[in-house]
Give the backbone structure.
Amino acid sequence: MDARELYQDIILDHGRHPRNFRELPQATNLAHGHNPLCGDRVTVYLELDGDRIKDLSFDGRGCAISTASASLMTEVLKGKTLAEADALFKGFHAEVTGKAVPRLPDALAEDMERLAPLEGVRAYPTRVKCATLAWHAFEAALKNGAAGTVATVKTE
Ligand code: ZN
């Protein structure tokens, strides 16, 4: 099995069996994301403990790419500090948009590796928005704070 097939399998697996796919009753932050180009909708829930992401989850409905991306994001960001999460978002965003990837701390290399299956979307500009939707919602949740505050982000 070559890398491309392996990546495809990972996306299909996360698309069909998303991890951390649930509401988070104790969420301290949440935001809704909407990608009108594809119709993807996602709600990202965060439980922050100081500057650390104690728990996060998502729900919603979207295509396989948006669901897989949200699922992988929750796996990678759980337990991270906000600074680490920001670095991963920048790295991931550069990766999927085909821009120069900023140098990340070595400790995050394994996490970037886990997000690699989504790199393939860079050849398909409309799919990039599917892949980044959950991350934009994550950022919006950080900005908008307390549970009940709802922000709809549109991918630009
Ligand atoms: Zn989509």
User: Anything to note?
Assistant: The radius of gyration is 14 Å. The helical segments are 3-16, 64-77, 82-97, 109-115, 125-144. Residues 35, 38, 40, 62-63, 65-66, 130 surround zinc ion (CB under 6 Å).
